[in-house]
Every structure is written in structure tokens, then in C-alpha cells.
């Protein structure tokens, strides 16, 4: 079983992140995936469950990044995906029926405290231009000394 550093290194290579020291976005995304992987390991998921869970993490981020889903839309999407996992799942959702209802609820709870709790920060990371950040910093640094 890999330690945290080993998991992080393997995911860094898999995700092709090369500039973790200089690219905050890559470092944040790596942390997102490493945390998710370690959480799934604590759930004693099977290999296929790991795979589906990691796919769910990636799809949740893609919905935000490429589809510009709002928090409400993402929560609704997750609810629809997870509802298909339950005992009354339809034929088309066979790919997802590898989790039981207890595991599905745990996954929802995990996404609440990981992605959804910090949704605005992820939006900022994906949508804010670097120039805005620099300009904001320069404006702040240009403020008069308030103690004078």
C-alpha cells in the first residue's frame, strides 16, 4: 500500500503535472485527486469502485470547468447520477450500480465537504484571468499606509 507521498507522485505522473512548484492550479488539482483517492481507500472500495469514484471526481470538475455549471446545477447533476445507483436503477445506469446506497450517501457527503464547500474557489481558479489577480495585488500594494 502506497503512502501519501507515493500516491501523490503516481497521480502527478498520471495527470502529467510538471510544474507543481510554480503552478498553483496544478497543485490544487493534484490535492483534489489525492484527497479523493485516499478517501476512497479508507472506504475499502474495490478497484472498479476506485475507478468509478475517480471518474466521478473528474466529471464533477469538468462540469464546472467546461460546462460552467453553477453549484446548484452540479448538486442536481450529482443527485441524478447517484440516484441511478440505488436498488431501482435502470438498465442504462448499469455502469454506476457498483455502489450500494450507504456508499452512495458517503460519496455525496464527501463531495459536499471537498468540492461543493469550496466551489467558489474552484470557479475562481478556472475562470479568473491571471491579470486580474496581479492587478488586484498591485492595487492593494498601492494603498496608502493606514497607520500614518
Characteristic key phrases:
7 helices; flat; mainly alpha; 148 residues
Per DSSP, what share of the residues sits in E-state strands of 2 or more residues?
Answer: under 5%
Terminal CA distance reads 58 Å
Please identify the structural class as seen in this structure: mainly alpha
Parts with pLDDT < 50 across at least 5 consecutive residues: 131-135, 138-144
Estimate nothing, just give the exact number of structural domains: 1
Integer-rounded radius of gyration: 19 Å
Question: Judging from the principal axes of the Cα atoms, what is the shape?
Answer: flat
Assembly status:
single chain
Number of strands: 0
Q: What is the helix/strand order?
A: HHHHHHH
Sheet having the most strands = none
Helix-residue proportion: 55-70%
Please tally the helical runs, counting DSSP H or I stretches of 4 or more residues: 7
* Overall residue-averaged pLDDT value: 79
Question: What can you tell me about this protein's structure?
Answer:
With 148 residues, this protein is mainly alpha-helical. The chain has one domain (4-129). Helices cover 66% and strands 0% of the residues. It contains seven helices and no strands. Helix 1 (4-15) crosses helix 2. Residues 131-135 and 138-144 have low confidence and may be disordered.
Task: Compose a concise summary of this entry.
With 148 residues, the protein is mainly α. It is built from seven helices and no strands. The protein has helices spanning 4-15, 24-42, 47-65, 71-83, 101-113, 119-127, 130-141.
